[in-house]
Predict the structure.
Amino acid sequence: MKDEPIKQLSTNEFIQLVGEEPQSDKLHVYISEGLEQIPITIPFRSSDYTLLHVAKGVLKFSINLINYTLKKNESIAINPKSVVQIHEISEDIKVYSISFTAQFVFDNFFNKGSVDAFGYFTHNNVPKLRFSKQEGKILKMLIRMLRFYNQQEDNPYKEDLIRNTFGVIAYNYAQNFKKTYPNLKAELTRQEELVLRFWNILQENVKTDRRVQFYADALNVTTGHLSKTLKETTGKTASQLIEAAVIMEARLLLVDPKLSIAQIAEILRFPDQSFFGKYFKKHVGLSPSAYRKENRK
C-alpha cells in the first residue's frame, strides 16, 4: 500500500471505467450489465456517497481494510471518507448503485428529519443490510425508475420525480437500517457534527436570516471556520448553502397559488418584490412569475 497510493476517484471517473456516460453532476445511477472484470483493482477513495445493492451473484471487497461479502439482496452504504478495494466478483454479478453528492442531499432533503435519515452513512464500521425477496424486488424497481428519470432531458417534472423516487429509496433503507441495528448510534466527526448543526439551524432560520455571521454566532465559531468546514464537507461555502436554502424555500412557496410574489418576498424578508425577483432570477435563470408559470404546466 505504501508503494501504491490510494487513488481519489470522482463518480464520473468511476462510471467511465465501467463504460457509462455521466448522467448529472450530483447523481448517478448505475446498473451493471454483464460486468466481466473488476473495473479497478487498486484501492480508491470515492468523492461521493454510494448506496450499493447486489441483485445477483457475489461481490467481495473491503472498506477501510475491513472485508465484506455481498450476496443477492444485500446492500451497503459507503461514505466519501472510505477507502474501497474490490477483490472479487462472480461471473453472474449484477450490481445496482446510486452515487450522489452531499449537495444533492442538501438541495433535495433540506429538513432535520430528512438529514437524520442519512445517518447510516456516518458509521466507520459499515454494517451491511439484507433485504427480503419482496423488498429486493421493490428496491430494484425503484432504482431502475430513478435511473430512468435521471437520464431524461425533456421532462418538466424531472427534479420532482428524482427527489421523490430517491426519497422513497433512502427512507426505506433508513427504516431497514434502524430495524436491523436499533442500538447503533451515528458516528460523526467534529466537522460532520458542525455541518449537521448548521443544517438544522439553517432549516429553522432560512426565512428570516441570510447572514453567515448569524449562523457562525449560533454555532460559536468564526465565519471563516464555518465556511472552511462546510466547503471541505459539502463542496459549498456557508453563503452558497444559505443561498441554495433560500432558493429552495422560494421554489416551494411559488408552487402555492394562494401566495402572491409580493407576499413571498415578504415571507423571505426581502426588501421588496423587485429585489426578490432579481435575486431569484440570478440563481434560477427565471423570474419568479416565469418559474411559477413553468411549474403550472
Summary: Strands lie at 7-9, 27-31, 44-46, 49-56, 59-63, 66-70, 74-78, 83-89, 94-100, 128-130. The longest strand covers residues 49-56. The chain has two domains: 7-180, 190-294. The chain has a mean pLDDT of 82.
